[in-house]
Amino acid sequence: MVVVPLLTHHLLFILCLCLIQLQSIISSKSIIPPPPSLRFDKNGKFKILQVADMHYGDGISTPCEDVLPDQFNGCSDLNTTHFLNRWMKAENPDFIVFTGDNIFGFDATDAAKSLNAAFASGIPWAVLGNHDQESTLSREGVMKHIVTMQHTLSQLNPSSPDTIDGFGNHNLEVGGVDGSSLQNKSILNLYFLDSGDYSTVRSIQGYGWIKTSQQFWFKQKSLELQRAYMNKPEAQKAPAPGLAYFHIPLPEYASFDASNFTGVKQEGISSASVNSGFFTTMVESGDVKAVFVGHDHVNDFCGELTGIHLCYAGGFGYHAYGKAVWDRRARVVLATLEKTEKGGWGDVKSIRTWKRLDDEHLTSIDAQVLWTKKSSLVKLVQEVPEIMHFLSAHCNMKQQSPLHCLFLGMQENGGAC
């Protein structure tokens, strides 16, 4: 029998305590989320460009579709690239979202090469459409290639043990201004989902949809982000606003007519033939303020339903169907922060949108307010009947809600009331 001296027992005991404490420190640090890879700029703004349906083929050899006869000669994928470069220079965005059908698979003889060309400018991000996999790569192969590209923030799928349908489902967090009290908080949340291509259920025809597994992931992630935002440090009173991006429109897009949206509806809503309930899931989660899709190239409207704006971008690419007398276009989203009492930057105050046309002047059209934080001014307007009555009478002539009209008026006057 080996007798261990008492001093050795004490040393072993202390060593064990140290190891336990070290393990505790490592574990606690491992659950601290990394700082956001995106953040608001020093002016309290964050700008997103949405590109829908580039339909990129093989470059200069791929002809344009639906352009005027005098524009056809010499028109190719390079026109799409030129529009993207002009648009980026004019808007100077913080982030670009490519919402699917980035390449037109049947006409892209080398999918990887076409993807590289399509995303050659700026900061690529992509959500799969229903044509991306029709070339030399599978849907999974397309996304695996995208996540290796320079500047991309795309992810193949969430890093969780649960199986999830599709590829490219993930979220990105946008942090507060560097040096502000919210610099390590995600004050704007971006959700990206794969809406599929075509139905995989034999008895259901038509396009794909966002599946139950994806909705489960979304609900869990939304709840996780809301808890982090409303807990210490710098606990906030309400969830941070969220924006969702995918390719195929939800059936709820058919809820609008010309009286309750901004923009145009020139074709039917090509959603899945079944309703998977994702709109209801977003309403229940409570943080998503707007959804952005593509797929239907000559629709570019944006309307509000149950507190969520449902928006199209309008067709972007020249090797895609459109209208010869209707300019290609794309959508801009601008989130702006609120100034704190001490003069710093706080949380998100408003989210606005507009579109730019690929015309001579890159004309901006259809400015809208998608969401505003209910400030003390808005509360005052709501609580004083005389003000609301005046705004209603004045703004109804413009077919705008009173608060929308008030906000646009303030913007025109530099923020003054």
From TrEMBL:
Cell location: Secreted
Cofactor list: Zn(2+)
Name listed for the protein in its UniProt record: Calcineurin-like phosphoesterase domain-containing protein
Gene Ontology MF terms: hydrolase activity, acting on ester bonds; metal ion binding
Gene3D superfamilies noted in UniProt: 3.60.21.10
GO cellular component terms, A-Z: cytoplasm; extracellular region
Family listed: Belongs to the metallophosphoesterase superfamily. Purple acid phosphatase family.
Assembly mode: Homodimer.
InterPro entries named in the record: Calcineurin-like_PHP, Metallo-depent_PP-like, PAP14/16/28/29
Signal sequence residues: 1-27
The organism's place on the tree of life at top rank: Eukaryota
PANTHER family with a match to the protein in the record: PHOSPHATASE DCR2-RELATED (PTHR32440:SF0), PHOSPHATASE DCR2-RELATED-RELATED (PTHR32440)
Organism: Papaver somniferum (Opium poppy)
Pfam assignment, any one: Metallophos
Keywords of the record: Glycoprotein, Iron, Metal-binding, Secreted, Signal, Zinc
The keyword Glycoprotein is assigned to this record: yes
Domain Calcineurin-like phosphoesterase stretches: 46-298
